[in-house]
Structures are given as structure tokens and as C-alpha cells.
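Quick note —
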Amino acid sequence: MPVLQADDLRKQYHLGSSRVDALAGVDFLVEEGEFVAIMGPSGSGKSTLLHMVGGLDQPSGGEVTLAGARLSQLKDKKVTLLRRRNIGFVFQFFNLLPTLSAEENITLPLLIDGKNMKAYQQRLDLLLQLTGLSDRRSHKPEQLSGGEQQRVALARALITEPAILLADEPTGNLDSKTGTVIMELLRQSCDELRQSIVVVTHDPRAAAYADRVVFLRDGRQDGELRFLPDTPLAEKLHLIIERMSALGE
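Predicted structure written out below.
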């Protein structure tokens, strides 16, 4: 069973007398341990899709199944609980609490969920090592660079061992060098932790780290690229740019 599956997903907005189809029947799935990028022109429905599958917004039609649970059959509190325990979120802006240290920001989801913090100490140490933050664990956000803050956000998203990690433009607020570090960490999380990952991005360089790139256009899926594990990054990048050019980007 896929970790995440969307069937005929639709989202409509009404602007005065006009109806906007942000999603117009999208089928989408992610297997365990798979790294998927979502790309498309501005307004194609990328972020809307991410919000729907992440339980942050309700679709107008269709179904989302996450970790075996159909979201449409759950009440709001159950959706919140499922989201908290099964999804890690990483956004363009880091959303760290300024009064907490890096370590405290990372473990905040455990505290909110009433988890035994000692039981996650090994996981915390592993993530601090993976993200290169072991010597920055006591630093507050103002003492960290933008790249370090995004690494804290990544570790926070992974601390609960979520079924899937959803990232919306995770490199959008970073310079290209730091963005590369973040994408390499996501790739490493997928390879070493078997973490399922979905990244929405407009950046072909970021998308090239994925196993598969799904393209959206006008709220509909418009093909995909699937790569072999040993496909060179440069070759992936070339194919993605070529495909985006065909979409008018």
C-alpha cells in the first residue's frame, strides 16, 4: 500500500461569480521510501496539492489516503492527530520559535504530542549528526544562519519518524549553495532513513534530487519523469529543464 495516495483530487475556489479549478482531478501516489518532486508553472496547483494531501485543507472532491487512513472519513481532531504523527512539514520560511534553542525547536513536536523525550534521545542525536547541527544544538535561531535554521526545521520535521515528509519550496529562501546542502540532506534522509518525501519546487536543480518528478498544469497532471537510481544529477537536470520548457516555464 502506498504511504500516500490521492484519487481524483479536486479543489475549487469561487471568486465572485467565477469558479477557479485549482485542482481538476489529480491522481497521485507516493511509495514508501520514494522521493517525489512536484513541478509546474505558477498557478498550476502545486502548493494546493501539497495542502490537500497534507490535510491542511479539504478538497472539493476526491479522496486522500494517508498511512492507510482515508481523510474524508475522519473528523477534524482525528485529521489533526494523524497529521501531527504521520507528516513532517518543511516550508520556505523556517517557522522556528525564537526563544527556543535548536534542540528545543527540533523536539517541540514531541512535547506537543506528550511523547517521552528520553525515548527519542537516540533519534535526536542521529538527526543532529545528519544535519550537521551537533555543535549548534544549544544555539537559538538568531545565532544560526539561514541554512542552519532550515536544517533545524528539517530535523524537526523528521523527529517523529513521520510516514512522509512534505516540503513546500524548501530552498526558496536560501542561496543556491545552501539550497544544495538542504536538498542533499533530503536525499540522504530518503536513502539512509527510508524517508518518503514530497517536494514542491520551481527549481529544476532541487527537483533533480528526486526519484520522480510529477508535472502539473492548470490543476491537472501533465506527465512525469521517472529516473533510474544511478542517473547522473546533470542528466536529470537537463531532462527536467527540457520538460519545463515544454510547459512554458
